[in-house]
Amino acid sequence: MRTEKSSKNAIISLVYYAINTVFSFVSKTIFINYLGIEYNGLNSLFLNILGVLNIAELGIGAAVGYSLYKPLAEKDTKKINEILLLYKYIYRCIAIVIFIIGIIITIFINRFVNSNISINEIRIYFIMYLFATITSYLFTFLNVLPLADQRNYFIVRIQGNAKILKTILQFIVIILYKNYYYWLIIEIISNCLMYIYTNIKIKKDYKYYSNEKTLSFLQLLKKYKNIVLKTKDLFFHKIGGLVVNQTDNIIISYFGNLEMVGIYTNYLTIQTLLSGSVEQAFIGITSSIGNLIVEEDNKKVYSVWKELHILTIFLSTIMCFLFYKLANPFIGIWVGKEYIFSKYIVFAIALNIMFKVIKQPIDKFKDAYGIFYDKMAPFIESVINLVVSIILVKNIGVLGVVVGTIVSNIIIIAMWKPYIVFKDGFKIPFVEYIKLNIPYFFLSIITIVISNVLINCTRILEVNNVTDLIIMFIVHGSISVIIATIVFMTNKYFRKTITKYISLLISNIKGIKNNKKA
Questions:
Q1: 380-416 confidence digits (pLDDT tens)
Q2: Count of H helices and E strands in the chain?
Q3: Which of 10, 23, 235, 299 is in Cβ range 3.0-4.6 Å of 167 for a Cys bridge?
Q4: What angle do CA 36, 42, 47 make, to 5 degrees?
Q5: How far, in Å, CA of 136 to CA of 44, rounded?
């Protein structure tokens, strides 16, 4: 049952992610063509600033999800309802905090923006975005229930369809009116309707859910101290992830301009497409990992992690290489050759894609084990990222910001997180992690070298139109996937793992088709 649910979650998450990615690219293309690269940069900057504001969430969602695994497995509806009520109370407080901080930022937002757009106009846009963020905290507390219950597909289907419809409406409005206000109005209204409809469906499916206030906020805080303690630890992890993922555009905007932010965002869109596809699959199986840890021994848990780890090594090798080879040709055709970065920046972003993909199994198992005590790690990660980025951005521009992220990723993502998961989760010496990855590292290098040699032999290295781009994608993609498969198949454990997961995928696709027929 656990395997079926996790597979279903992963498949549906990936399908909707792919569909929404296509719509997102179309929307962004129309956005840039009709409103310009500067508005694209402004929109991305707002998302980053609000990402910083979301620190107020403190990681409570992950702590609540972790706390729901056991009562859901035991069908303890009283405890489930109390935890959800606590979650609702906390999210209301968070909405108030974000509103207050957001208004303060609105006053001083001119310090973050270097643009020709009117500052008063920018303030109005930001307040609208702020309102959209606040409403999410008032409505989304119930989403954690199906997510923790290994039913991520339930949320993905509803919200995936809503996002597709919203995106279509937004680019129609942009084409007809060329107005950013209308784009934001649709964002706010559609999100509110989506959240309300999602809650109605959740309440219908989970009939035992009760909105009755059985205990006060303070009583719930005292009763569920473990959630509060986990939240305190997760707060620091939130800071680390925040600095690494949300401050790049703010630094670039401060030391550069919105146009540079817009160009960088185009590359991040591709990065998100690649790393996000893997992340979506892991979001789909997170609750199943929690259930696995609750019900199985460490030996079984470690075995599952090893399977997922080698698959992410395989995928990250292909993604990193293809991004480096294809990002600039794609950007050149998509928005114009004047918006292309140097190969050094592209290479640095490609390395970060590899880190983002490889970290998924460790991150999800770390959360499922409830290992949040390493509060100094995200602090160190934040300091390293900010210091290196700010020092280097003055000398080498955008490349310096990306290098700052790489340095922090090597220290925390590649070394520290695996160390504590092996030590306190799997109860296995960290040296086993090193020994496990040495052969994987060489497999990746061999794959990249052979693929690059073969691609250079094809001489399909320049792109002048969409047809050339499609041919390049097909040739480069085919060569890298085939070579990666051949090279990794020399590893016995990879052969065993890939055979298992392909069989599982086929059986689940058949199961989904049979359910639809029924």
A1: 888 888 888 888 988 888 899 889 989 988 888 888 8
A2: 20, 0
A3: 23
A4: 130
A5: 19
